[in-house]
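step 4 of 6: structure.
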Amino acid sequence: GAVVSQHPSRVICKSGTSVKIECRSLDFQATTMFWYRQFPKKSLMLMATSNEGSKATYEQGVEKDKFLINHASLTLSTLTVTSAHPEDSSFYICSATGTSDPLEQYFGPGTRLTVT
Amino acid sequence: GQNIDQPTEMTATEGAIVQINCTYQTSGFNGLFWYQQHAGEAPTFLSYNVLDGLEEKGRFSSFLSRSKGYSYLLLKELQMKDSASYLCAVRDSNYQLIWGAGTKLIIKP
């Protein structure tokens, strides 16, 4: 099956700093990648949809200047949390759509961000 | 608005069968997905239904009734490793995935 990697798996940073999370599709080309956020015992919350070579589409309520998304190639998308605050601490998960029906999403292993 | 409902938590016994229900109200329908998510890990794809009926895949089966806006995931011969959250997601007319809050399944020996 399709494999999506995510790096780092865990990161601790201080308030005010920025953190970059990488999402890679290892064995397929992902024209569309998704970034989710998940709080403990809650469902996935879609933050943005990222298409290669174009600007990401952000969901309502998600600050695009705070959560910068870049999808520079068919195998790599990055999420940068700028000027992080403790409330940004969460589990961030990326996914990529397969290339054939039913176009299910393949998820990366997630990144646990803790802002101190 | 769009809505996916599934029970918050269920408990079952090892070796038994459990059915996790999902009802949905969405703007259009382009398929329903079930994902499994172990604690602290990302979701993994289990099944996909776009036509009415039952899809069987080993110990797991998924059923869909589009007219009723209803699906269920059936897990047979439960194993301790099946303890996880099970997420129901519906793809709407814009091909957006609408996610349920997930059902935490607890398996007891």
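step 5 of 6: annotate
 - Chain A touches chain B through 19 residues (CB under 8 Å).
 - The mean pLDDT of chain A is 90.
step 6 of 6: archive
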